[in-house]
Structure formats: C-alpha cells, structure tokens
Amino acid sequence: MSAAGGSDSAAPALVRAIERAAEVLRAGGVIAYPTEAVYGLGCDPGNEAAVQRILELKGRARAQGVILIAADFEQIEPFIAADAATTERLRASWPGPVTWVVAARPGVPEWIRGAHAGVAVRVTAHAPSAALCRAFGGALVSTSANRSGEAPARSAAEAAAAFEGGLDFILDGPLGGRERPSEIRDAATGRVLRPA
Description:
By secondary structure, the chain is of the alpha/beta class. The chain has helices spanning 12-26, 48-58, 73-76, 84-93, 110-113, 127-136, 156-163; strands spanning 31-34, 39-42, 67-70, 98-103, 118-123, 140-144, 169-170, 183-186, 192-194. It is 32% helix and 19% strand.
C-alpha cells in the first residue's frame, strides 16, 4: 500500500485505512502507524489510559514523557506556551522532521510531559501521518514502535511482531524515507537534544 504525494492523491485503500485508524484512536485505542523514518505508536494524548498502555507496551518510564505530532501549528497550540519569537522559530522549521521541546501550557497533563516542564511537539511533513492527524482531528502521541532497548519497527509487519497482538490497529503505509528519527531541539535555547 502506498501513497503518491499528499493525502488528496493517496491510494483509496490508504485513505480508508487512515479513516479506520482515526476511528480506533477516537475510541481510545492504540495504533501503530508510519512516520518520517520508523513506525510509531499513537493514541489520543488526552486519554490517560491509552497513553499508559503505550508506555507499558514499550516498557517506557512515564517520567520520560511522549512526543506529539500534528498536521499543522493549530493542532499543537493547545499544548504549548510559546512567545512570538519561539512561535516564529517553530513555524520556520515546520512542517518538517524537527521536534521541539516547548514550555507546556498550564493544564497539559504529566502523562504527556512526564517529569518535564516542557512538551515535545512536531508538525509533520509526512503526508500519511498528517492525514491521520487531520482525520483524528488533533495532535497524536508519536513514540517509536519498539520495546525499550530494541530497534524501532520499519514496517507494519515488524510493528505487529514487536507487540504480538497488543495493538488495536496497524496502519500499513509508506515511511517518509528518512534514515533516523527526528532531531529534537530545545525551543528556549535552540540546543540540539537528539541529533537527526
């Protein structure tokens, strides 16, 4: 299954699969889906139980927090407290494979932030991921589809094998062609926290 460019020209089967994945997400499910470089695990970031399931599937500590991806800046805005200069810096790099750690807006829950004051966010340029966010209607949790210490899945089959029936849906679609997961930068300082 493949997409030819943006979501408007995606194969009909992929479009249907994205719609089904969004239904599963809205129902509180946990899915695997393709991103820029690897398959990710995703859920509704407002659903604590779903986020906790992802952390347990991965063996990831809650204190680490999770990354959120979105189709556009407006889907990220409810989660961040960014001044004009920071907003300009974010917008200049998006959509694209740069994740920024930005001061969290008051009320962003600790199951998203972890033990941090900031939240990690990205507006993706990967068409299937962006289409999924649009179909869902907001930002999504995005963390690599692997158990801690193992290599991230790079296909639907690898994601299925890694979690042995523990997922509610796997969106089979193309990766974005990148070799490594997104770079992570600190929005306050510009410092690179994880190189690309």
